[in-house]
Every structure is written in structure tokens, then in C-alpha cells.
Write a structure and sequence with these properties.
By secondary structure, the protein is an alpha+beta fold. The protein contains four helices and six strands; from the N terminus they run αααββββββα. The longest helix is centred in the first third of the chain and has 91 residues. The chain is rod-shaped and about 170 Å long. The model has no long low-confidence stretch (mean pLDDT about 80).
């Protein structure tokens, strides 16, 4: 009987030992699982952080590339506009030298008309006066036709008349006189100026009346 009790007691103790061992093994497994989960979680957090950093880096790089693209696009657009403008100016002013050479002929016409006008004012016999009048009319007509052709075909325009306001960008003052005027004005035009489109290709040579101060005092 005692031996049976001893065996039962021993069996119980052995069961308890095995149970404790199983509990210990289970706890160890749980601890290991917890450690693995923690490691996995930390790894995921690191990877997530790395991905976020890479994403921010890519966003910044994309923004930089977009900025560079827009800058290059603006530079190219400005270059294209400049090339178009320069090409158009080259076309518009391609005949500048030719027209400058023609200005001498136009000046000669003006001088001839001025001389013919002075001669026609003198007292002369009828036939001679009539002939000179016809010459003057012919010169004026030829001059008018030439100026009209140059204006229509090349946009060449003369400028410079006595009484106009003086503009240093358009007029070249040969001399000046103090006069009772409010602002500088053209007193006399010695040589007409010419515009090709909107560009002055030759300034007018003029005598200028400058304010003497009396007009301002009034």
C-alpha cells in the first residue's frame, strides 16, 4: 500500500515537473515570439521611415526638376520671341542702306524745288515765267510721287517742319537762338529727317528757338 502511494506521489511529482517544464517552454516560446514581433515591428518602422524619407527626397527632386523645366521653358520662349523680333527687324530694315543712299536724291529734289520757287517769284516775261512754273510743278509732282512710293513700299516718312517742338531724339540742332517761347521749337529746317517704320534713320538738321525766360515769367 505504501509502495503504491509512493508511486502515485512520484508520478504526481513527475507530472508537475513536466507541467512546469511545459509551462516554461511555452513561456520561452511566447517570449521568443514577442521578441520576433518586436523585431519585425521595429524593422517595419525603420522600413516605413526609410520609405517616407525616400518619398520626400523624390518629391523634392521632382519639384527641382519641374522648376528647372519651367525655367528652361521660359528661357526658350524668350529666345524664340527674340529670334522672331530680330528676324522681323532684319526684314523691316533690310533696305536701310539703300534708302539712305536715296535720301541724297530726295534732298536734291527739295533744293531744286526751293530754287525753282524762288525763281518763279521773280518778275520775268510771260513765256519764261510759264516755263519755269511748269518745271516747278513737274519737280513737285515727281517728288510727291517718289515720297508716296517710298512710304507705301518701305514705310519711309519725312519729318521736320518749322514750328514743331524740338526732340533731341529726332532733331540735330545746328544752332539755336534765345526767343520768347515756352519750349524749344524748330525755327528753320535745313535738312529733313526720315523715319523708317518707327526708327530714325536720319535726324533732321535744324535751327532751334530756345526759351529766353520771358514767356515763363508771363
Amino acid at each position: 500500500m505504501k509502495e503504491a502511494e509512493k508511486k502515485d506521489k512520484k508520478a504526481v511529482e513527475q507530472d508537475e515537473v513536466e507541467t512546469l517544464k511545459k509551462d516554461e517552454d511555452l513561456q520561452n516560446e511566447l517570449n521568443e515570439e514577442e521578441i520576433r514581433e518586436k523585431e519585425v515591428s521595429e524593422t517595419c518602422e525603420k522600413e516605413e521611415k526609410t520609405l517616407e524619407e525616400e518619398l520626400e527626397c523624390l518629391k523634392k527632386e521632382n519639384a527641382d526638376l519641374k522648376d528647372q523645366y519651367l525655367r528652361k521653358l521660359a528661357e526658350f520662349d524668350n529666345y524664340r520671341k527674340r529670334m522672331i523680333k530680330e528676324k522681323q527687324e532684319a526684314i523691316d530694315y533690310a533696305n536701310t542702306n539703300l534708302l539712305l543712299d536715296l535720301l541724297t536724291t530726295l534732298d536734291d529734289f527739295d533744293r531744286a524745288i526751293q530754287a525753282a520757287s524762288q525763281n518763279s517769284g521773280e518778275e520775268k516775261k510771260g513765256d519764261k515765267k510759264q516755263a519755269e512754273g511748269s518745271i516747278l510743278e513737274g519737280l513737285c509732282l515727281m517728288n510727291k510721287q517718289m515720297l508716296s512710293m517710298l512710304e507705301k513700299k518701305y514705310n519711309l516718312l519725312p519729318f521736320g517742319k518749322a514750328g514743331e517742338s524740338y526732340d533731341h531724339d529726332r532733331h540735330e540742332a545746328i544752332g539755336s537762338m534765345q526767343m520768347p517761347v515756352a519750349e524749344p521749337v524748330l525755327a528753320e529746317v535745313y535738312l529733313k529727317g526720315y523715319l523708317l517704320k518707327e526708327r530714325v534713320i536720319r535726324p533732321a538738321k535744324v535751327m532751334v528757338h530756345m526759351p529766353d525766360g520771358t514767356e515763363t515769367e508771363k
